[in-house]
């Protein structure tokens, strides 16, 4: 499996891990309720609510990233370039999660644009 393929797997897991932070940190009346997860999410505030929003955005970012990696590999683009960009995408997504949780909205937007640009760059390799 290539580094880019590993990055696809990581990108698929990141959204669930992001909201997992909020689930693990919830205690008492705020405890995660697996019987009614949507109700639990609806009651979140602060960084836990932002963790859920970052999760949703992570899922939104997946289709373009996955398609870009697959199409670039099918086109036999330079694998080292695909790998480097895919690793960059994961790094940017980790920064995105951090700035989202920290509520630094302007930086979050800039980091999001960077992730989009990386996915487009991978796609253009094809």
UniProtKB/TrEMBL annotation:
| Cleavable signal peptide | 1-22
- One GO CC annotation, please? membrane
Alphabetized Gene3D superfamilies for the sequence: Membrane associated eicosanoid/glutathione metabolism-like domain
Superkingdom of the source species: Bacteria
Coiled coil start-end: none
The residues that cross the membrane are 53-72, 84-103, 109-125
Kindly indicate whether the keyword Signal belongs to this entry: yes
**Keyword annotations from UniProtKB, A to Z:** Membrane, Signal, Transmembrane, Transmembrane helix
What Pfam family is a match, any one?
Answer: MAPEG
Say yes or no: keyword Amino-acid biosynthesis present: no
Q: What is its main location?
A: membrane
- Subcellular location field: Membrane
Name the UniProt record assigns to this protein = Uncharacterized conserved protein, MAPEG superfamily
Q: Which organism is it from?
A: Duganella sacchari
The taxonomy runs: Bacteria, Pseudomonadati, Pseudomonadota, Betaproteobacteria, Burkholderiales
